[in-house]
Amino acid sequence: MNYFMWKVKTVVPHNIGELLTPLGLCYWICDDGSFCQKTRTIVIITHGFTLEEVNLLIKALTDKFELNCTIKKDKIAFAIRISPKSLPILKKLLAPHMPSMMRFKIGL
Fold first, then answer.
1. What's the predicted TM-score (pTM) here?
2. Hey, what domains does the chain have and what are their CATH numbers?
3. Which of 17, 18, 43, 58 satisfies CB 3.0 to 4.6 Å to 69 for a cystine?
4. Number of Cβ within a 10 Å radius of residue 44
């Protein structure tokens, strides 16, 4: 019996700013986010996306939620870094949606 592993390419829609909701951001951070206690930053892994797509995501996060975001280049690809200055905004935005066992991902 042959087993095939299908590689699925995720694509960021050009209108992601219209589509992304606080609940969607919450799920995204729960899945691909991490909180660094030392720097008080949140990093969202975006290894499956191109640099252009990561820039589009940062624009959506900045324009829609007023988050201060930058691109972080790691060993493999790009990630989104959310500044400690944005933590109060992010906590207020996501706390109602964030499951209690995942609150550590936003420093709660």
1. 0.84
2. 22-106 (3.10.28.10)
3. 58
4. 22
